[in-house]
Amino acid sequence: MQDWLKGRIAIITGASAGIGQALARDFVHHGARLVINARREAKLEELAQELGKDNVAVVAGDAANPEVIDQLFTAALEKFEDEADLVVVNAGRGLNGSVLTSDPAQWEEMIQTNILGAARLMRAAAARMLENIEQGEADWQQQARDIVVLGSTVGRHISPFSSMYGSTKFAVNSLAEALRREIGPKGVRVSLIEPGFVRSEFQGVAGYDPKWFGEVIDRIGPVLTPEDCAEIVSFLVSRPPQVHLSDCVIRPTRQEYP
Predict the structure, then answer these.
(1) CATH superfamily, region 9-250
(2) What's the Cα-to-Cα distance from 181 to each of 36, 117, 128, 175, rounded to whole Å?
(3) Residue 212: which residues within 8 A CB-CB, separation 6 or more?
(4) Is the pTM of this model over 0.70?
């Protein structure tokens, strides 16, 4: 075990499954303490028990809700007596289909979670980290400050088969890069992670046809696991404060598109 993240306090949204859950395990493995969030409280409590209640605080609720976002930072202060210095904007949901074929009844919820919730958390994290630096409570050259945003390859390369979901990830990708340009010069790193095909709960929740996904795996597999993505993120945020890996695309070796 390498204590890459020893002393760091991380907030992870969408931590009850998939990449978020894998990140929680990997961060604790490397020495971090966590505030984890998702809607499914029982899943979060089970994960906290596994990782050690001394290392983990649980805040259940909708990650797009401003009150829940405030609770995440309050929980870090109350549990660990310090501000979070690593925030992973991971909560999100998919949606199968294009502008023509996707279910319009699900558009607003997806936009609320994937864009508005992500923007609110990015804003809150940036404001707190900048305040710590500007008030002299934190020296960015001694301790890195990281905001990690989960995008997608479909937020970089247009796919007509998931264009509504992809549009939200185009937005997130743009927000992350814009925020990096705004606060990077002040000492806060903003990193965008863009995974390709990852096997998780995501496909079922998004409504993808299991037969179609099976055919994709047969054609380009093996596909990524959440653990593959988590290991990359842990490496990324463990770099020295003056080193920033700002944009990382992660694909299965045989995935040619998107």
Answers:
(1) NAD(P)-binding Rossmann-like Domain (3.40.50.720)
(2) 27, 20, 17, 10
(3) none
(4) yes
